[in-house]
Structures are given as C-alpha cells and as structure tokens.
Amino acid sequence: MTEGLLSVEDLTISFLSEAGPLRVVDGISFAIGREVVALVGESGSGKSMTGRAIMGLLPRQADIRARRLEFDGQDLTALSPSGWNRLRGAGIGLILQDPKYSLNPAHRIGRQVEEALLLHARFSAGERRDRALDMLDKVGLPDPKRVYSSYPAALSGGMGQRAMIAAMLINRPKLLIADEPTSALDRGLQDQILTLLRSLTEELGMGLLLISHDLQQVSRYADRVMVMRRGRIEEEMASADLANAKSAYTRALWAARPSAATYGTHLPVYGEER
Ligand SMILES: Nc1ncnc2c1ncn2[C@@H]1O[C@H](COP(=O)(O)OP(=O)(O)OP(=O)(O)O)[C@@H](O)[C@H]1O
C-alpha cells in the first residue's frame, strides 16, 4: 500500500429493532491507499453499509460510531451536511449496481456526466463538454460525441455502466467505491468493466473499494481482499495469498470458485454437514 487515503477504526453501525440494537457492522477497522481493495462477503454481512458510511449515505435510522473515520486528512465524523455534499463526487465517487437506477432517463448522457463539474468546479460550457467527451473516451465508449448527446435508453447495460463511471470520475475523485458494479451485467461484460475500473484506478492514481459477494471474481482485480462476515472483518490479505487463507470461512469462499476440476459437481456450502 502506498499513501493512505481512508482510515477507518472501530466502525460500528446499528439499527434499532424490537429486540434492541442490531449491530450490522461490528467494530471494523481498515485502511485504503491508492490501490484496489475488495470487500467481500455473503448477503447481509454489512458490506454496503460500510461503503455507505464512508459516503455519509447511511439510512437515517442507522446509528454510526467510529473511533476514527478519516479521508485524505479530513475527519468525516465531524463533517456537516454541506461538507458531505462537497466530498461526494469531488473526493469520493460511488458506483452502484445498475446504471438504470443511477442515470436519469430524462437527461442526455453528456449533461449527466458534466453535472458534477457544475457542482464542484468552475468551467465554461465548452470546457465542460471537452472534459465530458474526454472522460467518455477514457471509459472506452466508442463515438463519445454520439454517446454525449444520447439518452440512457439508447445505451446497452455495459455502455450505461461505462457512462456512469465517466460521470463519477469527471471530478477525479481520490477514492471510488463500487458496490456490486457489475451484478446487472452478463459475465463477459463484468470482466470488461472490472478490467476498466482496475486500469483507471492505476491511470488516475485513485483508490478503489470494490464491494462484491464474488470472492473469486474480484480477487483477480484487487491487490488486497477483506472478507466480511456478520458485521466483522474475518480476514484481510493480499489477493495473491488467498490460496493460503487462515480462516475456514475465507477458504470455503475461495474453494467455492468454479474450476475445471469442480465443474459439474456440487460446490461446498459453508457450515453444511456432509
Ligand atoms: N434500514 C435498515 N433497518 C434495519 N436493518 C437494515 C437496514 N438496512 C440494512 N439493514 C440490515 O443491515 C445488514 C447489512 O446490510 P448490507 O446491505 O450492508 O449487507 P451486504 O453485505 O451489502 O449484503 P447485500 O449484498 O445483500 O447488499 C443486513 O442484515 C440488513 O438487513
């Protein structure tokens, strides 16, 4: 890891339930530099809530506590609502699963990619257009001018997700959080988008937090993985060391990867008696 960007210490997120407070994130600590880190775990393990906490986007009912939540030298626990607004888009970008829900169907792509420039920087209309076209090109969209003046419905799912990534990167955030960024896409496109995110992270010198339930897939693109289970980080390691994971849970997730040897057989289910 190089220069630290994000530092999280003892982060706890709870919701009030009839049975008392329900801790969905239970005292986790981690740091991210200019690197790709995957946060992996099964559904409900607390991955999305962790990502949202870093963006100041937790549901109102959530109770968040942290000994330290610091991004780029800034204490996030003390941030005002307008401070969060400044941070989102300019400092930290968020990419969600499905561009259908992130892109506004009523506005042309160009306007949506430029939008963050209006909020965070002062550029002329011509400069905004040039920057948007440049970014549409960078995310690998063919014919950026045509895409710029298209509506989202004219784009395929993969193109929509590339446009979404362009909109998030236009302000050159230092950290990008991608929460299941490819779940809505078919397998071939998933690998293309993950390859793109990985190479943009290196090219733009960002950090990337890649949230996913699919350990074997994201570990191919991540420098490090953090395996989350029931609100805690069960294990954290370099992707290259996954074959030697200590935790039985990580080993089970890792062993669940399909390979020529397991093709056609039942994949192991963790905790299942056999
Ligand atoms: N508004 C809420 N009120 C109460 N509990 C909530 C609320 N939002 C989320 N939760 C609970 O928080 C837990 C963690 O959710 P989170 O979305 O972080 O899981 P996840 O690991 O990202 O899983 P998934 O991949 O299914 O999104 C879940 O058990 C969920 O039911």
TrEMBL record:
Keyword field: ATP-binding, Cell membrane, Membrane, Nucleotide-binding, Transport
Membrane topology summary: Peripheral membrane protein
Record-level Gene Ontology MF annotations: ATP binding
Principal subcellular localisation of the protein: membrane
Keyword Cell membrane attached: yes
Top-level division of the source organism's lineage: Bacteria
Pfam families: ABC_tran (PF00005)
Location relative to the cell: Cell inner membrane
Domain ABC transporter: 6-255
Family note: Belongs to the ABC transporter superfamily.
PANTHER family linked: DIPEPTIDE TRANSPORT ATP-BINDING PROTEIN DPPD, OLIGOPEPTIDE TRANSPORT ATP-BINDING PROTEIN APPD
Name under which the protein is recorded: ABC transporter ATP-binding protein
Source species of the chain: Rhizobium brockwellii
Lineage, broadest ranks: Bacteria, Pseudomonadati, Pseudomonadota, Alphaproteobacteria, Hyphomicrobiales
